[in-house]
């Protein structure tokens, strides 16, 4: 490849902020195109591969699933894409995040109530354990 800096997997991992293990994993999932190999079989990554790894890392940091990332990488490389396709994926992920946040907030409220009602003393009565066992708490 003329004009493209080739890096081994360790250098690619450092340059992208992704571990070498995850670089191999992403390659195995097909998120990276097949990479060049030296005569002795070592992988060689280009600047474009590093850029794709950074894209994947950023998408993972935002919590996208591997399937969503695969779709996003495909759209990113497709210059004839419609931004509506990208927005649809991001909107769906945003809605899932909002639901997970609401679920976590509900768990937090329930647990805060249980902790508040537990005396935390030497007595065996404990509304936390009652709730976990399915018994009716004695508030």
TrEMBL record:
<dbReference type="InterPro" id="IPR011789">
    <property type="entry name" value="CueR"/>
</dbReference>
<feature type="coiled-coil region">
    <location>
        <begin position="87"/>
        <end position="114"/>
    </location>
</feature>
<keyword id="KW-0963">Cytoplasm</keyword>
<keyword id="KW-0175">Coiled coil</keyword>
<dbReference type="Pfam" id="PF00376">
    <property type="entry name" value="MerR"/>
</dbReference>
<dbReference type="InterPro" id="IPR047057">
    <property type="entry name" value="MerR_fam"/>
</dbReference>
<keyword id="KW-0804">Transcription</keyword>
<dbReference type="InterPro" id="IPR000551">
    <property type="entry name" value="MerR-type_HTH_dom"/>
</dbReference>
<protein>
    <submittedName>
        <fullName>Cu(I)-responsive transcriptional regulator</fullName>
    </submittedName>
</protein>
<dbReference type="InterPro" id="IPR009061">
    <property type="entry name" value="DNA-bd_dom_put_sf"/>
</dbReference>
<keyword id="KW-0805">Transcription regulation</keyword>
<dbReference type="InterPro" id="IPR015358">
    <property type="entry name" value="Tscrpt_reg_MerR_DNA-bd"/>
</dbReference>
<dbReference type="Pfam" id="PF09278">
    <property type="entry name" value="MerR-DNA-bind"/>
</dbReference>
<keyword id="KW-0238">DNA-binding</keyword>
<feature type="domain" description="HTH merR-type">
    <location>
        <begin position="9"/>
        <end position="75"/>
    </location>
</feature>
